[in-house]
Amino acid sequence: MITKLKNLGPGLLFAGAAIGVSHLVQSTRAGADFGLGLIWALILANLFKYPFFQFGPKYAVATNESLLDGYNKLGKGTLITYYLLTFFTMFVIQMAVTIVTAGIASSLFYTFSPLVIIGLEISSVQIWSIIILAICFSLLMLGKYKLLDNLIKIIIITLAISTIVAVVMAFFKNDNTLSFIQIFPKNNIEIVFLIAFMGWMPAPLDVSVWHSLWSLEKKKNQISYSPKNALFDFNIGYIGTTILGICFLLLGALVMFSTGETFSGSAGVFASQLIDMYTSSLGNWAYVIIGIAAFTTMFSTTLTTLDASPRSMDRTSELLLNKTFKLGYLFWIVLLCLGTIYIFLFLGSEMGKLVKIATILSFITAPFYAIINYVLISGRHTPKEWQPSKGIRILSWLGIVFLVGFSIWYLSILDRSF
Prior knowledge:
Blueprint (H helix, E strand, L loop, with lengths): L1 H6 L2 H9 L2 H14 L4 H25 L3 H8 L1 H33 L5 H4 L7 H49 L14 H12 L7 H15 L5 H29 L11 H16 L3 H36 L6 H20 L3 H28 L11 H23 L6
């Protein structure tokens, strides 16, 4: 058991990256607006994306190379497509997760802000965003992967305990009967939300690339990290992510459904609404628990995303240019921070719109990652013993049909959606 616990790492990093906007914002909003009516969408998204996420750590540990190296073997065109998709989405995604984190921080920690200490009572979400980015940047520069690996275990445990406690207490406080009748959205506004909800549930599919990179880092620090260990680690993270997704949907349904409240698109106002709604329904005792759950949820996502995008862009650049860059990771993480801060200054108040754009982009690019991950893991570049079983192959085909079908359906109504 101790050995298995030591092997946990990349799977928890996956959970840290996944349990963020998809859970705190989208799952909570799904429960608030539809009750338990969208559990079908949460379960299907987790089920049909499962094999494509699994292929990341499986390929990495079985072949000692990342998915990016595998994409390069499939052809430069595949790798260039990945490079362009990542470059044009990473700033918006980092912005979306950081500004939600900042909104929660500004609501929770305003009285402890350094600005208050020096006499400036400013609770700007943009300022908090910069503070959080600076903290994450410092942690990654000082501790690198090893600190990230150790820190995420503490964060995920804190997140899981605080969320489950909140759900249990919400059940005891709830006087209304929950309906398990499933709902399929009908109008365009509801359909857009459904696509956004599934887009980041449990996470964008390009996180499979990040997972493969983290798995290689884990193997450098722990030689005994085998494909079996990697799959165990992944399954723990994935199952935990799914359970917590249901927990946040339940919280939204138990506390907010049928209240008539609507969420603001402003990060600061959204965070205050979220926490105040829980405390007014569950009692003031819930403030700390909900606050810790919300903040650790988003901080873990901000931290892991800030590490993963630069790590993947650095490796992609090396493969495309056939050259090693000593300061490549540093270059990309600084560029990501500066680009994100630049967006803060112009679009900082548009949290709702940014989250919608980021989640929808993730959904409509999902078929690309699903197909190339399946082709790579099923082909000659993966050892036979680690290629997918018949059951996983069938699930993969169904998943590709699901992702392609929903993407085409959404694109067909795109002109009426905004």
